[in-house]
Amino acid sequence: MRRKTSLVLLALAVFFAALSPLLRWYAFPRLAKIPANQYQDMVLEAKDATLIDYDDGMKEKKVSKVTIVQTLKGNVEASEKIEKTAGKDVVVWDGLSYVVGPDGKMVSKIPERYIFDAHTQDPVHATGEMVDGDPVKRAGIEFKWPFLTEKRDYVYFDAQARTSAPIHYKGTRNFRGLDVYYFEQTIPWTKVPFPKTMPVQGITPQSIARTGTTRWYTTVRKFWVEPLTGAPVYGEELHKEELRGGTLLGGRDKVTVFAGDVKMREDYIRHTVDLVKSNRTLVLLMTSYLPWGFLILGVLLLASSLWLEARGRRPAPATVDEPEPVSA
Description:
By secondary structure, this protein is an alpha+beta fold. The protein is 29% helix and 39% strand. It is built from four helices and twelve strands. It has a twelve-stranded antiparallel β-sheet with strand order 6-5-4-3-2-1-12-11-10-9-8-7.
């Protein structure tokens, strides 16, 4: 009986020991994915910002607040179509960055289509990849870091400039109870296209181009990223845009279109932190808790199997026959 139990324990030990690396290196890359149908939105604000007033001679004015609403909507139909030729799980996000002034009027809106690998977040190049209707070929990440983010620099895509540049790891910090990696990217003054949709009716990028006026942009982009999930829990941008030269400015060299410190709104920070904390537990289960738990369980089962086997092979103690009593 002991030998049968020992063999069962040995089989279970081998099973759990083999399951440990399989869960970490085989199951995790296949299970940890961004859902193709995910929808998320984010509201950011720049308080005490500078904004151009198109109705008052295109003068720059101080305003109480500029609001940026960012939405990312998973396009399941497009992702399934791309997966047929990509040979991997693909996510397609149709995004929109919508900027409004303190009066609720639209300042700008820029749509995007971002196509990427569901697990690694590496860009996947396919028809439809664009920013504001312009075809692009991204290099590097955008919006989200990969699962198990490392302490190193990454390449990050800038939608305004339509180019990619390094975003630098600046250290580990604590943000509302989470250990996060802080990243920072500086985009120097760069000439960028005008949005296809302008805030003033009748004005188009083509009509502005004829005046010789150009649009320039710079930003310092900051992210606090939870490394297990790769999800930013907080973001901030020191953002500035200018119009330069041409007859549109009436002899002025440049005019600030928008300048402000753009930060996530408090209610969205709380929601994001809570969401990341729950998802972090799931990643830990697949990368740490279960693999190590199965490995330790396998070792314990193996030790129990060997102990039972050793006991089963121990010789039985010798018995001594008692002498029969001598009858008188």
